[in-house]
């Protein structure tokens, strides 16, 4: 198991490191990276979700149980964070960044490792995870921004942010195609598959390019708190929910994997748009991406050993 996890992580680490090197060396124009992030967030990653859900073979997978475990653990950690808000020595905008750093996850890293661990089954399990967590997390984050962000949202603004989220729309579209049995037409399907596949290497390069270690050092307390919630509290809540629902095998490993992912670079974009603390969010994202290289194998190995027969 250890060797498999490390081998699945190796290409992820190499692509993130390459992206960081390209940015530091100014190999590409500085304006390339924001446009690449926009392309990935609004087109490539949604296409990956749409294609993965529409074409996944879900008949032998514990779809309902896996989704229930992920949603329940996410809601539990979100409630604990909100209850602990009064004890945090940060303002409302800072809390939105801690919240995102605790519950939001990096889709690119999760899908890549799941595919490396379990092949086609891993891709299908990753699609279920995204369908369950992406809408849940985005709704929760928009609500937290509406309550604590500096740019307060009206009820209409909240609904608009949720309804216009490309990842939510892609997941809903993929589930609709899967549920109705329509699938994807044979003509566009290869093009959609190629676009979705392109999201993984480009997304990891963008993750590396966005790393800013200087910002992480400026907020040690909030960064440490968000990272503890992400790498300890969230996986533990997921494991407890999995034990309660009887989730086992590759589905359990994939659930733990996705809930131990570092926060996504899209969290920084949302922080800028909705009145959060964007510099703090960048620091949390940078620190968690580095910590994840050690945290992900430890979480998977420790928790899966705990439940091994």
Automatic annotation (TrEMBL):
UniProt keywords, alphabetically: Cell membrane, Membrane, Transmembrane, Transmembrane helix, Transport
Membrane topology: Multi-pass membrane protein
Pfam families: Mem_trans
Superkingdom in the source lineage: Bacteria
Coiled-coil region(s): none
Gene3D superfamilies in UniProt: 1.20.1530.20
Broad class of where this protein is predominantly found: membrane
Key word RNA-binding present: no
Subcellular localization(s) per the UniProt record: Cell membrane
Record-annotated membrane-spanning stretches: 6-23, 39-58, 64-84, 105-126, 132-150, 162-179, 191-211, 223-245, 251-271, 283-308
Entry's family note: Belongs to the auxin efflux carrier (TC 2.A.69) family.
Protein name (database record): AEC family transporter
Species per Swiss-Prot/TrEMBL record: Plastoroseomonas hellenica
């Amino acid at each position: 198991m250890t060797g498999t996890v490390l081998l699945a992580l190796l290409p992820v680490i190499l692509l993130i490191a390459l992206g960081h090197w390209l940015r530091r060396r100014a190999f590409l124009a500085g304006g390339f990276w924001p446009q690449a992030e926009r392309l990935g967030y609004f087109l490539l990653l949604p296409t990956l979700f749409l294609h993965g859900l529409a074409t996944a073979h879900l008949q032998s997978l514990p779809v309902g149980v896996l989704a229930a475990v992920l949603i329940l653990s996410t809601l539990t950690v979100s409630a604990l964070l909100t209850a602990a808000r009064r004890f945090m020595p940060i303002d409302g905008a800072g809390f939105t960044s801690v919240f995102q750093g605790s519950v939001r996850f990096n889709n690119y890293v999760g899908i890549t490792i799941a595919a490396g661990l379990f092949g086609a089954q891993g891709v299908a399990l990753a699609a279920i995870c995204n369908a369950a967590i992406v809408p849940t997390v985005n709704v929760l984050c928009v609500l937290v921004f509406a309550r604590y962000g500096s740019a307060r949202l009206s009820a209409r603004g909240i609904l608009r942010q949720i309804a216009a989220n490309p990842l939510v729309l892609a997941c809903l579209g993929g589930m609709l195609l899967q549920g109705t049995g329509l699938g994807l037409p044979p003509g566009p399907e290869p093009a959609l598959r190629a676009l979705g596949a392109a999201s993984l290497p480009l997304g990891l390069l963008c993750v590396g390019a966005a790393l800013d270690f200087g910002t992480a050092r400026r907020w040690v307390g909030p960064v440490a708190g968000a990272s503890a919630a992400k790498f300890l509290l969230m996986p533990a809540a997921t494991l407890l929910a999995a034990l309660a629902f009887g989730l086992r095998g590759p589905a359990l490993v994939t659930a733990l994997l996705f809930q131990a992912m570092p926060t996504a670079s899209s969290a920084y974009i949302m922080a800028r748009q909705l009145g959060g603390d964007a510099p703090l969010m960048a620091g949390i994202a940078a620190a968690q991406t580095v910590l994840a290289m050690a945290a992900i194998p430890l979480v998977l190995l420790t928790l899966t050993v705990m439940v091994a027969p």
